[in-house]
């Protein structure tokens, strides 16, 4: 991965979280930062996920990473295949936002532990 792409990738999560925070100004919630061994990211609650969907923040995923990202989906997701899926970042966020309690987690991950990808996204509802 080129240095420029790494910089873009490192800025993608804070930029998305910032966009959601600005668009959702006035709400009492804020994206929840998380970190662990080999990863750092944010978890958006349902309200934040809805706002991210409304502003098409999911498009940033594909703009920054193309198809080079991994995704974890609930088994009842329309995009769940058990393997590779054609879901776009925008479809991923939109689907989570459409479910009661739907939320997303966005993570920068050590590629050595993430199938060679630096970005991972998870949804739940």
From TrEMBL:
Top-level taxon in the UniProt lineage: Bacteria
UniProt name for this protein: Uncharacterized protein
Lineage of the species this protein comes from: Bacteria, Bacillati, Actinomycetota, Actinomycetes, Mycobacteriales
Organism: Rhodococcus qingshengii
């Amino acid at each position: 991965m080129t240095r420029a792409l790494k910089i873009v990738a490192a800025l993608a999560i804070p930029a998305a979280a910032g966009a959601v925070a600005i668009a959702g100004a006035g709400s009492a919630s804020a994206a929840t930062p998380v970190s662990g061994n080999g990863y750092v990211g944010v978890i958006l609650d349902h309200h934040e996920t809805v706002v991210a969907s409304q502003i098409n923040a999911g498009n940033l995923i594909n703009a920054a990473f193309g198809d080079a990202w991994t995704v974890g989906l609930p088994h009842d997701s329309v995009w769940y295949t058990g393997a590779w899926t054609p879901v776009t970042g925008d479809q991923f966020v939109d689907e989570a936002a459409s479910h009661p309690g739907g939320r997303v987690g966005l993570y920068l991950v050590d590629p050595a532990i993430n199938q060679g990808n630096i970005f991972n996204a998870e949804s739940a509802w």
